[in-house]
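Hi all, posting the design record for the shared folder.

TITLE: backbone redesign
STEP: 1 of 1
STRUCTURE INPUT:
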């Protein structure tokens, strides 16, 4: 397993605005404070990556309150022709022996061999979990892939991965859109015949994504620590922002600059 700290201050303005939409004005203000060092981000968030095979779990290892949310999705995928499902664990922590399970990702391949689905489910407090943005992946070769994803773009594009986003799209519609995209491109593709094929090509895609984020400094690798302490679970709101006390005037000036810049950005976009 590989351990990474997440550094939100390394996001580009474009990525930060995407993740905080529709709070564009506030997002721009906070991002600007990061860049001129009037605010800092607590880097206690620790993501576990590495070999997907090491992070596979069974359904009975999922918290009991979250299982009723997962089973219908597995059944729905099966109805759409997806087979050989697996559960990849989402883990946070700074110690190999004390990792926190915060969610899973459902992985399955289509019986045609043309694509695989990856659907994250993050455990919550109210109803046990919520379903994240599903993605369909077709692999051209070991370094290139085509993805159709529910939702909107957050991070900049992973090298070799062509992504089309469909906001508020039902899974059946996403599958049909993906089929049309593949047909229109006319590319030859890797046929995914079994779970091993699926995991191999998903691993290659994840490796490219992680490598890019490490090169940018967004993910910083570290050696796991001794002891049972766990980090806080990631919160993509503004709670992680810790601004030191500063004179009022610079803050007001920054806010005015942010307001004017946001208005200009809106007019130009």
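Okay, here is what came back for every position:
SEQUENCE:
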């Amino acid at each position: 397993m590989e351990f990474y700290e997440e550094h939100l201050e390394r996001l580009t303005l474009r990525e930060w605005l995407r993740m905080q939409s529709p709070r564009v004005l506030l997002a721009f203000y906070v991002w600007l404070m990061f860049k001129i060092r009037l605010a800092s981000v607590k880097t206690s968030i620790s993501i576990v990556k590495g070999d997907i095979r090491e992070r596979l779990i069974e359904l009975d290892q999922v918290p009991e309150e979250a299982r009723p949310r997962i089973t219908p999705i597995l059944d729905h995928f099966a109805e759409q022709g997806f087979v050989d499902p697996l559960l990849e664990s989402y883990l946070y922590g700074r110690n190999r022996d004390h990792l926190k399970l915060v969610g899973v990702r459902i992985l399955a391949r289509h019986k045609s061999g043309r694509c695989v689905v990856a659907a994250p489910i993050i455990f919550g407090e109210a109803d046990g979990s919520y379903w994240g943005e599903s993605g369909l992946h077709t692999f051209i070769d070991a370094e290139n892939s085509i993805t159709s994803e529910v939702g909107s773009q957050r991070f900049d594009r992973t090298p070799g991965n062509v992504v089309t986003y469909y906001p508020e799209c039902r899974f059946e519609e996403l599958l049909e859109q993906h089929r049309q995209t593949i047909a229109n491109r006319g590319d030859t593709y890797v046929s995914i015949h079994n779970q091993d094929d699926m995991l191999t090509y998903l691993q290659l895609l994840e490796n490219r994504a992680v490598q890019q984020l490490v090169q940018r400094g967004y993910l910083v690798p570290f050696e796991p620590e001794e002891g049972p302490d766990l980090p806080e679970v990631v919160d993509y709101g503004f709670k992680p922002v810790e601004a030191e006390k500063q004179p009022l005037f610079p803050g007001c000036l920054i806010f005015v600059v942010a307001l004017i810049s946001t208005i200009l950005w809106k007019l130009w976009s």
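COMMENT: Residues 230-251 have pLDDT under 50 and may be disordered.
Let me know if anyone wants the other runs.
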